[in-house]
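sry for the spam today, last one i promise. struct tokens for design, 89 residues
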């Protein structure tokens, strides 16, 4: 792991994620691949449709600069869901 960084902070039920900022930070660290993660304050780690959409958008944006998105973890109360394991990445 090169670096762990918090890039965005949300409210109780949403967060704005900007793919260009993720790409910019990855390039700044000369990353070849990323793993992203976020929590669900509700405690339920099940991915939402919005989670799946932003994962695909991030994968596409990172792919344009040859950076692989390895996984997107969603963390709940004692549970973690991998979107790679679910076949979304």
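last one done:
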């Amino acid at each position: 792991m090169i670096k762990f960084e918090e890039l965005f902070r949300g409210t109780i039920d949403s967060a704005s994620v900007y793919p260009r900022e993720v790409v910019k930070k990855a390039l700044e660290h000369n990353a070849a691949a990323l793993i992203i993660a976020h929590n669900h304050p509700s405690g339920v780690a099940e991915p939402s449709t919005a989670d799946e959409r932003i994962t695909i958008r991030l994968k596409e944006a990172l792919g344009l600069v040859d950076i692989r998105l390895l996984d997107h973890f969603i963390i709940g109360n004692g549970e973690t869901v991998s979107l790679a394991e679910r076949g979304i990445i």
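The beta strands are 33-39, 68-75, 80-82. ok im logging off now
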